[in-house]
Design goal:
This protein is mainly alpha-helical. The chain contains nine helices and four strands. The strands form two sheets. The protein has a two-stranded antiparallel sheet with strand order 1-4. β2 and β3 form a beta hairpin.
Amino acid sequence: VKVTVSGGDRNAKATKVDNAEVPFYLWNDVLVPDENDAGIKALNLSRKACLRWWKNKVRKEFIAWLKQAHKMPEESLDSRTFAKLSKRTEFVKDISAGRECIFRCGGATWWEWKEGSRPLFWRWPSSYRTQIRDGIDVWCKGPLPVWQVPQRYEKDTSVWEGMRDKLTVVRAKGYMGPGPVRALTSYFVVEKGEDDIRMVYDGAKSALNAMLWAPWFPLPTVENLLRAVVSKFSRSRKRMERDCQR
């Protein structure tokens, strides 16, 4: 079901659902204030042309970067040269990741990532490019738990259908696929508006959260600021505390 939202209702809690229509009229009203059909048609044609140009640019940009990064010849590759390059681990990873980026960009519309999204890693600085391509490592305190307790069946039909729809979107975009499963993740549902739900993946129940470590950076307090204050500084402590509380 596609939910259409009017301008007056777009900020209401009940309309903030995942399948709500993109409020494209906000852009149209600025560019074509009188909402005439000819102007809207021209605007849509411009969007299609720009989108086609951008997709083509992404593809050419990746190919140019790949040739430069792996010192590939400008002319077409023969089978022998490609076979040599295919033995390089980094080349294979770049090709695989780049192909997925181009595929996902190719499925995008002007408003949505219909096929999902992935960072265009070749645009990142070389010092961080590999992490963006392969994903940032997760720090573990110990061996990951093997949780194999099945999810309890949802008795509410409407909630069950909502969960199915959420998982269908995730699978359709390629974020989840077939393969061996070593551990399960439980989840629960909370209401989102009046006609939608939000799925919360629970890593605490399986003890997964307990095995993961993430760095934390505390926010500075007034006491931290006062450490840098010298005795000749004109502001009083009370005044500084008052300023920091504002």
